[in-house]
């Protein structure tokens, strides 16, 4: 029997196994997006496909893994999942991500019984999508690359060369792509072994009972927290810059959130329909991003388990931007990054003391690719950029950290980018005055300048440049993200999401947004404003204009001038 102590030991054993899966993946992956940025989702699941342990990476991946496994079970049947099998699925509408985020998973058997699954999702380099690197303007799923609908990479432990050969002949960078897929396989095999060891040590029945108890406990924690939240219904709207096709047309995301004692309902009815370009979301990702916000409000201090999300209900309209159906394009999944903060915008109306103002609102990714003149080999590198977080009722927003959709991720170090590509980083630092003014200031964004030393392609994945990060309770909005090509020249172009063909000497600046402010800026402690000026987050002009604080050259507050500026 799984008594409380045994259950806790098993829970930590599963968490340790998930972390080992992640370490195994990072040691064996070919792609810096995986081993440097941690663009992955890793989980251990029970026999129903429900996650019981994960290792933090891309937050929306792990819940998407649940959906991918369950669709595969329905498609193939459980009897088709034998010991030693390893599967791959990247059919977007089932796998909950675009085609370059394949889910690899392996069934776990013990005592001739299916007891669970190990899963690993990463971003791979290329699967013959219509454009190298990333697709920004597809209008049909068929343009988005090779699809594998729950296919066996390994059959009872034997490599299935048929599938690997299909991948090899359908990738522009087969070595990297197959290397990353094999790293996923290795990671899953590690998860299978460690879970089987727990089954051997404690018995299958005890392990299964412990998994059920883990999820039951996760559900109880969520329900207890839900009862403490303010109750009501609130609606918010925000926008994605464009769909990649109609560049001058904002795409509306509408969210109505209802909180009761029994459930939280996140209703996306009213969001844009008939979106032509590839920003449509598989419904599994919509459910996952909604789960991320729900967890941040209810059980932020405990590891992810499926039970945490039992009180959450997500409503979508099939065929809308929040629920893609075949053959709708889904490649540019940035809607899933921006939409989480639409939920927060709705909740801010009813519980402003519990949620932050909007962050910079994007992961502001820049991907470069080309032929490296030093090696003659193709290269492809990417990094996500930090943004400013929104101020809260209790403190300032953080300056320059990864967007809330990827709390387990990092950016790609300058040294890695310069070593592996034909890019030089000329500048990297904070963007002063981008955080919205407030009693609690929004965090500032960052700016990174890329100079290309050879003909290259620069792909900018930035989809919140046309709307400002919203604020709360009288705070000021943050400054939005911005991409500038060849600044200060006759060829300067200010843009957002874009696919750029670049020549040697071209310069691209990826400048990220700041968070919205919280509360009246004139209520901010003048000493805090002076500290921000000293640290370079706020300019002296902004201190006077936005905060009514006059800061001298010695970074000391001029109290008389400040009192006059504030009318006090």
Automatic annotation (TrEMBL):
GO terms for biological process: glutathione metabolic process. It holds the Pfam family Hydantoinase_B. GO terms for cellular component: cytosol. GO terms for molecular function: 5-oxoprolinase (ATP-hydrolyzing) activity. InterPro entries: Hydantoinase_B, Oxoprolinase-like. Signal peptide: none annotated. Residues 3-521 form the Hydantoinase B/oxoprolinase domain. PANTHER family: 5-OXOPROLINASE RELATED, HYPOTHETICAL 5-OXOPROLINASE (EUROFUNG)-RELATED. This is N-methylhydantoinase B. It comes from Leucobacter komagatae.
């Amino acid at each position: 029997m799984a008594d409380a102590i045994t259950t806790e030991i098993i829970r930590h054993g599963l968490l340790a196994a998930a972390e080992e899966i992640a370490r195994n993946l990072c040691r064996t992956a070919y792609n810096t997006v995986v081993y440097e940025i941690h663009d992955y989702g890793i989980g251990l699941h029970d026999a129903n496909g429900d996650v019981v342990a994960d290792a933090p990476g891309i937050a929306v991946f792990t819940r998407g893994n649940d959906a991918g496994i369950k669709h595969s079970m329905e498609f193939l049947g459980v009897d088709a999942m034998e010991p030693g099998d390893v599967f791959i699925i990247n059919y977007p509408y089932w796998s909950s991500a675009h085609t370059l985020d394949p889910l690899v998973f392996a069934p776990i058997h013990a005592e001739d019984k299916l007891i669970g699954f190990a899963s690993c999702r990463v971003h791979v380099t290329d699967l013959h999508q219509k454009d190298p690197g990333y697709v920004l303007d597809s209008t049909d799923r068929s343009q988005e690359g090779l699809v594998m609908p729950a296919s066996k990479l390994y059959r009872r432990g034997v490599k299935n060369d048929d599938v690997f050969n299909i991948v090899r002949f359908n990738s522009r960078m087969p070595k990297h792509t197959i290397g990353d897929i094999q790293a996923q396989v290795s990671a899953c095999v590690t998860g299978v072994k460690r879970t089987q060891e727990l089954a051997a040590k404690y018995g299958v029945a005890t392990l299964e009972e412990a998994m059920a108890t883990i999820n039951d406990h996760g559900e109880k924690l969520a329900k207890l927290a839900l009862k403490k939240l303010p109750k009501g219904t609130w609606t918010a709207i925000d926008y994605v810059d464009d769909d990649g096709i109609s560049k001058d047309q904002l795409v509306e995301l509408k969210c109505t959130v209802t909180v009761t004692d029994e459930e939280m309902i996140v209703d996306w009815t009213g969001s844009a329909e008939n979106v032509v370009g590839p920003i449509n979301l598989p419904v599994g990702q919509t459910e996952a991003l909604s789960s991320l916000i729900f967890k941040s409000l209810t059980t932020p201090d405990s590891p992810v388990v499926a039970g945490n999300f039992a009180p959450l209900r997500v409503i979508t309209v099939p065929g809308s931007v929040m629920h893609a159906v075949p053959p709708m394009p889904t490649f540019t999944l940035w809607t899933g990054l921006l939409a989480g903060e639409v939920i927060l915008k709705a909740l801010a109306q009813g519980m402003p003391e519990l949620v932050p103002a909007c962050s910079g609102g994007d992961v502001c990714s820049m991907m470069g690719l080309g032929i490296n003149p030093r090696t003659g080999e193709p290269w492809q590198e990417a990094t996500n950029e930090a943004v400013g977080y929104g101020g809260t009722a209790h403190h300032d927003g953080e300056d320059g950290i990864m967007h809330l959709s990827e709390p387990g991720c990092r950016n790609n170090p300058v040294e890695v980018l310069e070593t592996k590509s034909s890019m030089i980083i000329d500048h990297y630092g904070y963007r002063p005055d981008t955080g919205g003014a407030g009693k609690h200031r929004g965090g500032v964004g960052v700016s990174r300048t890329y100079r290309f030393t050879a003909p290259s392609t620069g792909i900018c994945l930035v989809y919140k440049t046309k709307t400002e990060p919203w604020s709360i309770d009288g705070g000021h909005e943050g400054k939005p993200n911005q991409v500038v090509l060849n600044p200060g020249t006759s060829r300067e172009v200010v843009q957002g999401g874009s696919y750029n063909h670049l020549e040697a000497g071209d310069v691209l600046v990826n400048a990220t947004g700041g968070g919205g402010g919280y509360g009246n800026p004139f209520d901010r402690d003048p000493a805090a404003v002076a500290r921000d000026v000293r640290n370079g987050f706020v300019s002296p002009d902004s201190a006077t204009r936005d905060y009514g604080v006059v800061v001298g050259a010695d970074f000391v507050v001029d109290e008389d001038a400040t009192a006059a500026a504030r009318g006090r």
